[in-house]
Write a structure and sequence with these properties.
This protein is of the alpha/beta class. It has one domain: Rossmann fold. The protein has ten helices and seven strands. A seven-stranded parallel beta sheet has the order 3-2-1-4-5-6-7, with helices on both faces. Strand 1, helix 1 and strand 2 (about 30-35) form a beta-alpha-beta unit. The longest helix has 22 residues, at about 105-125.
Length: about 250
């Protein structure tokens, strides 16, 4: 089992990201947990720190993944405190609903910046800390909306389609350095943000379309991500791992 890795997780303050932080910390890895909201990140420290003591394997720092300088600063902190990055998990995302004909250019750009450009910037900042080690794992978050489209989310679906293409190209470029690049495509995952944004009839429709007729929860994604971050997945790259309870069978 891989242990003692340095793992960057974006979107760490809540939802899927916080569950990933739990799993890698429990495995004995050092986790650089980042989110745009510093106050939310600090609230999560009480969960990640133990018995009131600061967890020495946790580095929690705010960063705006859509801003190039912020990503560089995060990579610089990783270099200063750990000297390397072994695993990068681009989990952060944003999925507002806007009908296409009402969508402004600024709304389009903001969603593209967070979901696609942020993945590009974080990866570009982290790769130099990986490539000289001859081992690395990059796991990007796509979306099951790629497979059938989602009305009123054309900016989000377009961004996640871009993440898929970026993943495949990076897999080609980074393979000689022992770095794998893969993408996870979750179904609609019932986090607090989803509960707040989606009515119950939509959640029920999702359950009914799956082979496994229940809500998808954040914990359903932790094992697949952990696998792709391991030596066991060392010959898997440029691939899409669909985790949606059998809604789409590819």
């Amino acid at each position: 089992m891989n242990t003692d890795r340095v793992v960057i997780i974006t979107g760490a303050a809540g939802g899927v990201g916080s569950e990933l932080v739990d799993r890698f910390l429990a495995n004995g890895d050092t986790v650089i947990a980042t989110d745009v909201d510093d106050s939310a990140l600090e609230q999560w420290r009480s969960r990640w720190d133990t018995d009131g003591q600061t967890n020495p394997r946790l580095i929690a720092t705010a960063a705006d993944i859509a801003a190039e300088e912020s990503c560089h600063q995060l990579a610089d902190r990783a270099a200063e405190q750990t000297g390397r990055v072994d695993v990068l998990i681009n989990c952060a995302g944003w999925f507002p609903f806007v009908p296409f004909e009402e969508m402004t250019t600024d709304q389009w750009r903001q969603v593209i910046d967070i979901n696609l450009t942020g993945t590009f910037l974080m990866t570009k900042s982290a790769v130099p800390l990986m490539k000289n080690r001859g081992w690395g794992r990059i796991i990007n978050f796509g979306s099951g909306s790629l497979f059938d489209g989602t009305a009123n989310q054309s900016h989000y679906v377009a961004a996640k389609a871009g993440v898929l293409g970026l993943t495949r190209s990076l897999a080609r470029e980074l393979g000689d350095y022992g770095i794998t690049v893969n993408v996870i495509t979750p179904g609609l995952t019932v986090t607090k943000a989803v509960k707040d944004a989606f009515p119950e009839d939509i959640l029920e429709a999702q359950r009914s379309r799956r082979a496994i007729h229940r809500d998808e929860i954040a914990g359903d994604l932790v094992g697949p991500v952990f696998f792709l971050a391991s030596d066991d997945a060392g010959f898997i790259t440029g691939q899409t791992l669909n985790v949606d309870g059998g809604q789409h069978m590819l």
